[in-house]
Every structure is written in structure tokens, then in C-alpha cells.
Amino acid sequence: MGGTGRLWAWAIAALMALAGTGVVVGRWAWRGRDLVAEARGAYARGDWDRAAALARRQLRRHGDDPEALRIYARASARLGRDEAASSIYKDRLGAERMEPEDYFLVGLGLVRLGRNETALKLWEKAARAGPDYPDLLGSLAQQAIALGHLEEADAAARRLARQPGWEARGWLLLGEVQHALDHPEGAAEALAQGLRLDPDARGVPLAASYYRRLLARSWLRLGRAAKAQEQLNTVLAGAPGDREAHRLLSRAFLQQGRIEDAAAALQRAGSDPAQNLLTPEPGPYVGAARCAACHRDISRTYSHTRHARTFHRGPALLELPMPEHPLTDPDDPRVTLTFRRDGPRIRVETRTKDQVLDTVVAYAFGTRDRYVTMIGRDDEQTDRAVRLSYYRTASGSGWDRTSGDVGAPDPNENVRGRPIEVRDGVVRCLHCHVTRPREFRDPPPEVAGPEAADPAIGCERCHGPGGNHLKAIAADFPDRAIAVVRAGTAPAEAVNAQCAECHTVDFHSLIAAAPEDPLYVRSPGMTLTFSKCFTGSGGSLSCLTCHDPHREAEKTASFYEAKCLDCHARQGTGATLPAGRQTACKINPTQDCLNCHMPKVPVAGLHTTLTDHYIRVHRRAGPTSRP
Q: For the whole model, what pTM was predicted?
């Protein structure tokens, strides 16, 4: 097995070992040998080459010296010699003798190999099992931010902020996490603390200007333009040509009503056609109702889309379909569920042989013409997806096991439905069903923002906060200060990434490894990007090529076939194809594109079929491998 495979296999073995044992805290006693002591000193000074050379000399004399092995493995890893390091860790030291620094270095090797998710899992387990090791915590936080594991990143950054000498880095990383969690108050507090401790951001991965701009964004999100201006002035004092700082400064002036200054700052930022096309504006939210006051036609058509009808709470819950009689669990006939209206609320009573359990519904996801899942809280304050969900098809409607809830219910764990992951006080499902999930966190904010009144996914979920936009329109400002998401103006890759935030199930690496798996028909935002139609489009094919998010999706095959033929010239027409585009299909060049290349795939758990967006020649479409 080569170095790449050996390191990855070792990491998997180490993960298994970590699951059952703790990380070694103490080191083996030094035996006083001069070579080992000198190697240790060289390693401590960061002289990796000398440390490796001295350790290698000791190993020629005593091939089983554990400290020489450790120093040689660590120095090799620091030098990027992953094959040598992995050979020692796997074959000579063993997982039971690993220390936090060793797991940190193995993870660095995995990152260099592109195994970022495996590295993150290794670091997470090592951090849970062993003492705080700053390098590991810092890298864990950075990798977790990059991969969207924000709870893990938050915990690692907070631990790092408690380590002597690492406080500033911990606070600055925490500020990044809080920003990613859409918590401008928390981001501003953490970033300000980090910059107070280390104004020049020494010893952190990015320049101080990056963190000051991020702090300015947080202040602008909160409408505190003067504080944002202070940070941006500091950035521009050291880098007068910082275009992003000038652009943010224009927003600070705009919020303060200083329109001439805002225009001058915008001019200094320079013209960039791609700038801010999809970047959310650093300003306050205003709510979809305020958007509708000017954009009446778009708002009217959008209100009929599933995006606008996929979240139900309060009085709207009482309008959802309700079974008239108790339902028997499909996997355990001894379990029944009774749905009943209790004043303004819905309660679900789960009866087993020995007990009666109560769940109070907080909200529901889905649309009544397709599929609805209720989310409730039990008497132990655990958020759960209710065990049975409502479905409606062309042949009828009914109730069945909720998608993702597998097998017979465990009477002690999931008889009421599986627990739902909560991140920063927000039930995970909310992230794809409302404008701003943070408005629905537990405990709720003291003052709800206007976006909390949106029916479901409102305008600002895709276009970003509209506060700056309203000020720009009122002042006839040349930059309308709103994220533009329009086919032909926004890069297709960025559009697809934004759609994929919600229209993707599972990790990118898993989908990329098997995009043809019927399971991933539920991940069109990702599978589309693996298609030759996308890769051969020169970066122009996006979700917006075929779908207008302001309107309900078209249902006729002819509509989409016309889209196909716009790019794939009709045979015999003599049309010229753009560079990289393929000729028309030789089997059926004018119709029936979808049945061959984008067939409907049954998804048993949802009682429906979904279109396969991994565009290719399909030999046979089958059911999903799991619900």
C-alpha cells in the first residue's frame, strides 16, 4: 500500500481506537541519551530537518526507541513526508500510544491528501478524548468552519480561547464561527475581543484586515455604522487600496445617510461586475412584506411556490391535514399515534403497551399537496420529527413512517419519532425552510426581527438583508445594494452553490463518490454539477437555466425539452453549437430528452418520484437505496 493509502487506512484505524480509549496524556520517560535530547530540542525550536536527522541516527543504534520514533514521525509530518510518518505511526507506535500532537499531525497529512472530512473526524475524536492541544484545536476549528461543522468549530474555538497565549486566536476563530452562524452580535463581541488582545492578529491564519472587515460586516448587520466605520478606517490606514474595505465603507456611509461620501467610497472600491452578485448585504433584515410593497408582481407569483409554503406554525398548523382516528405504527402494531387539536396547538399522543407519551407540535415542514412532517417537543424537551408524516399522491393520501425514521420504534428512544439535531439553539430542519433560522432559536430572541413574519422562505433568504437596499433606493444610490441572483448575471457555479445549500442531502464527498446512486436524486444541487451538461457548458449552466425561483416549477416535459434543445442543436438545422457543446441526440434528436437523460426516480420514503439531475444516459432507474 502506498503512502496515501497507508495514511488514510491508519487514520481510520486510529478513529476506531479513539472510540474506545483515551488519548495518552503522559509521555514516556526520557532516557537521558544525548541524541534524543538534542533531537527533542531541535524539534522544539522548529528545526524539523535536524530533529529528523538526529532521531534517525538514534534509531540506527536503537531501532525500537519510542521517543526517537515519535520525534522522527513528528518531524517527518512537519516536513510533509507523510509516507514516512504514517509508516511509523501505523506500524511501530500504534494508536494506543498516540498523543494529541500526533493526531494533529496525522490530520495535517490527511488534509494534504484532500481527506478533509476524515481529518476533521480524527481531530474531533482526539479533542474529545484528550487534553487541550492548541494546534489541534485551532486546526479543528478552521477545518470545521470550512466544512460547515459549526457546532464543533464553536466548541473548539472556545476551548482554544482559554489556552494561555492562544486567547486571541481562539476569539478570532470564534468570531468567524458566529458570523457563519448568522449571529452578528456574537461575532462582533468575539472579534472585538480578539482584536483587543492582538490588534495586529499575530499568530492567526489570516491578516488583521480580514478580521476587521468581518467585524465591520457584523456591525453593519446590526445597523451600527459608526462602529463599522472605525474598523474600516483602521484597515484603510494600513492598506489604502483595499477595495473591499472601501465597498463596506460605502455601506457605512449609506446607513448614516452620508450619500456623497458613500458614492465616493464606492468609486474608490472600483467597478467589479461579479462583486456582490450573490454576497448577502451587510445590513439589517426588513422582511418579505416590505419587499412586496415594491415588487408586487414577483411577490404574488412567488407566494404560490412551494418555497413560500414549506413552513407552518401557529394558527397555520391547525389547517394541516389531521387523521380522524388513531394510527397504528407501520412497524409495531402495539404502538398507536393520536393527533388532536388542543386549543391553538396540536398534540400527538403515542400509546405503547406500558405508557402514554405526549408531544406538542411546534411547527411543520412541507406542503399539503405533497408531504408534511410535524416537529414537536416531548416532555423531556427533546425536539423530534413525529413518527408518522402525511403524504399525498395522484392515487390518494395517507400517513406513513417519516422519511429518515427507519425500522421498528425503540420504546425508550424513538417511539415518538427520531430526535432532531439542534445547532446553536436552532432545529436543523429550519435552515432550509425559513428566511432566517436564528429567529426561531431556543430561547427565542427578546425582539423578533421582521423576517420572522415571513410565511416560509422569504425574499431575503436568497437576496440577503434588504436594509441597505431600501436606503439605496430612497437616495437613488447608483449601487442598489442587494444581492442579484439572475441567470446570465450571476456565475452559474455561485448560483448552484447557493441552491445546493438546501437542495443537497449528505456530504459532498459521498455524493461525488457515487453520483449515480438513486439515493442522491434528493441532491440535485450537487448532482447537476457532475453532469457533462454542466462541465461542458463553459460555466453557464445553472439551476436558473431551467427554473425560475419566483414561480412554481413547470410540470410539462416539453418546457424542459425546449431548454435541452436550446443548447443541443436540432439535427439537420445547421445550427452552430457553442464551444464544448455536444451535437443533438442521435436516438431522438427532437423530443423525449427527459425519459432518457433525466428520468423520474421513485423515492419510497417520500411516496413520490424525483427527477434525476445527474444528466447522463440512464440504463435503468431504480428505487433509492434507503429512504
A: 0.85
